[in-house]
């Protein structure tokens, strides 16, 4: 049912935990299942994501997509991170079963929420970023 990459990221999640010096934090919940994901960003003066952590209270697919999403945004600019969609995360994981696609949306939404939080704290506008619900 799950790809090897999904199982790997579920069993050995990358970048799990919290960041004390985070300057962008996003928390989102999945209305369908009640699972929760939080992403922490440490973004430097050049708007590069120097460090990232996540905490996910949810299913295995949500943990695996969080883990892969943090890998995909690490070292990227905030605009590159905006392009890390749930589709990109799923592709990087070699796919998810159809009933688990909604889990990957959490990762995209959490990235957006954390970027929004960063922009608000810095008083900047990130073009193309919509206010999280
Ligand atoms: Fe999310 Fe079961 S519905 S863990
Ligand atoms: Fe809820 Fe996966 S079942 S996020």
From TrEMBL:
One of its GO terms (molecular function) is iron-sulfur cluster binding. SUPFAM superfamilies: SufE/NifU. This is Fe-S cluster assembly scaffold protein NifU. Residues 1-122 form the NIF system FeS cluster assembly NifU N-terminal domain. Pfam families: NifU_N (PF01592). InterPro entries: NIF_FeS_clus_asmbl_NifU-like, NIF_FeS_clus_asmbl_NifU_N. PANTHER family: IRON-SULFUR CLUSTER ASSEMBLY ENZYME NIFU HOMOLOG (PTHR10093). GO terms for biological process: iron-sulfur cluster assembly.
């Amino acid at each position: 049912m799950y790809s090897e990459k999904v199982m790997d990221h579920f069993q050995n999640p990358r970048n799990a935990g919290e960041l004390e010096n985070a300057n962008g934090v996003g928390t989102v919940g999945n209305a369908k299942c009640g699972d929760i994901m939080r992403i922490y960003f440490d973004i430097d003066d050049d708007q590069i994501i120097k460090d990232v952590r996540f905490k996910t209270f949810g299913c295995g697919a949500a943990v695996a997509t969080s883990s892969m999403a943090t890998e995909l945004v690490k070292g990227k600019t905030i605009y590159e991170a905006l392009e890390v969609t749930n589709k990109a995360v799923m592709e990087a994981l070699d796919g998810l079963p159809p009933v688990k696609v909604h889990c990957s949306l959490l990762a995209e939404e959490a990235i957006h929420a954390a970027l929004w939080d960063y922009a608000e704290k810095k008083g900047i506008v990130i073009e193309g970023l919509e206010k999280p619900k």
